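TASK: fixed-backbone design
INPUT:
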């Protein structure tokens, strides 16, 4: 199979779909890998490293898309790439289709086979290809929130860890999954006063036992969310429903409950965000202010630490990608129900129920 790795064109996206180790594994298995010239530069991976392991360097994205049977990316295709896709071509990347009807329409019209990292799902509900980037985003969310709280960013001027004689900042983590767990870890490490809110009592017990009371826990309900919003300096939105639009747990009216200059970091922005006032931003202009609350909603947060993120992502994606390349997508999905759950669209049909429901499209089970 011919695998194509184009350069990412999302603003300030410096990750790359494949590292040299992945290219070497594919080449050894008899596949051809086309890499767009300079695609790995943002992750500190020069073309020479790819050439040494057998990649063919091509000058343009048009050639990558035009020759490849399978496109191996990091982020969803953008409008400039829609016209490069073709019927039956495998697209292996993050898609986040639920809040993006324009992209969904383009993929359906092109007839591609879209396998989305974020919906590859283990039998226990774990998301092996989303987890590495959730870990990165969760840790980054606290760094971003700490910056948002500085006065020059429009924030309250609060130091999350406080100092002797001055109380620390209060952090509310909305959701105790992978993002929330990593956000809590970083916030506790900085010395903040941390509360995590989740629906799952067993998950809250885990936080209580792991942190020996250092982290407060609250059951998620509207009363608790509203009360804690009024007490928090930093709110981190870490909720996820795999493949679906994130639930809107914070309405615009609720911003009036928050302290002026408080910060909201919505890590769920890829799935539409968990706040009504969330809209996607970029690393070039990561924040905006609504009703006195500093919002941070960068849709590709891990791109800020591209080298770490690229290697973490490849550790998870390479085994599944190799299986697709070796067996073809249909045989690979039949052999592995975990990978089959990643299929979102195929030949003009929406195959993922959560995506179909979110977009109002018919669901066509594969």
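OUTPUT:
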């Amino acid at each position: 199979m011919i695998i194509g790795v184009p350069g990412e064109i999302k603003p300030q996206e410096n990750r790359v779909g494949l590292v040299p180790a992945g290219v070497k594994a594919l080449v050894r298995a008899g596949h051809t890998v086309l890499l767009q010239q300079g695609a790995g530069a943002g992750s500190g991976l020069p073309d020479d490293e790819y050439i040494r392991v057998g990649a063919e360097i091509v000058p343009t994205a048009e050639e990558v898309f035009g020759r490849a049977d399978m496109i191996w990316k990091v982020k969803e295709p953008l409008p400039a790439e829609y016209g490069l896709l073709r019927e039956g071509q495998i697209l292996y990347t993050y898609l986040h289709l639920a809040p993006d009807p324009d992209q969904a329409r383009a993929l359906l019209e092109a007839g591609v086979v879209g396998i989305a990292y974020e919906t590859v799902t283990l039998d226990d509900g774990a998301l092996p290809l989303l987890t590495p980037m959730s870990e990165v985003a969760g840790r980054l969310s606290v760094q971003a929130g700490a910056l948002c709280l500085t006065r020059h960013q429009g924030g309250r001027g609060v130091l999350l860890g406080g100092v002797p004689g001055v109380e620390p900042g209060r952090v509310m983590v909305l959701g105790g999954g992978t993002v929330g767990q990593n956000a809590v870890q970083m916030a506790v490490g900085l010395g903040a006063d941390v509360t995590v809110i989740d629906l799952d009592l067993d998950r809250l017990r885990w936080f209580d036992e792991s942190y020996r009371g250092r982290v407060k826990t609250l059951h998620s309900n509207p009363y608790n969310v509203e009360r804690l919003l009024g007490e928090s300096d930093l709110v981190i939105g870490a909720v996820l429903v795999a493949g679906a639009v994130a639930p809107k747990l914070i309405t615009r009216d609720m911003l009036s409950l928050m302290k002026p200059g408080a910060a909201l970091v919505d890590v769920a922005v890829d799935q539409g965000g968990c706040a009504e006032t969330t809209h996607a931003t970029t690393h070039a202009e990561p924040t905006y202010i609504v009703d006195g609350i500093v919002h941070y909603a960068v849709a590709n947060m891990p791109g800020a630490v591209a080298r770490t993120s690229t290697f973490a992502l490849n550790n998870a994606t390479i085994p599944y990608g190799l299986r697709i390349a070796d067996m073809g997508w249909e045989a690979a999905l039949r052999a592995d129900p975990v990978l089959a759950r990643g299929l979102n669209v195929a030949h003009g049909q929406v195959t993922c129920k959560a995506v179909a429901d979110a977009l109002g499209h018919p669901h066509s089970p594969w």
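COMMENT: The mean pLDDT is 96.
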